[in-house]
Amino acid sequence: MGMTFQLHFASQVPRMALFVSKLSHCFHDILARYESGEWNVHIPFILSNHEDMRPVADRLGIDFHCLNITRDNKQEQEARQLQLLQDYEIDFVVLA
């Protein structure tokens, strides 16, 4: 079993992607901590499989992507998720 780690200078703000489902309680808690400055992160985009949280992302000026996943398109949508993570140079993902 191996372990991978990275070290960053405190001045370097990590880039966090936020993946959210239709349930919003964790999503709102995370964004409250982000807005208050409790979490020193940059959130370039939010990803969901529902449009419900788009207005919140829009209010905060955060890009929002909605990828509806079905049995027929699962592999394609997962590839799109990975591409978004690369395009936005994301350091880590939080599931809400």
TrEMBL record:
Superkingdom in the source lineage: Eukaryota
SUPFAM superfamilies recorded: Formyltransferase
GO molecular function, one term: formyltetrahydrofolate deformylase activity
GO BP: any one term: 'de novo' IMP biosynthetic process
Protein name: Uncharacterized protein
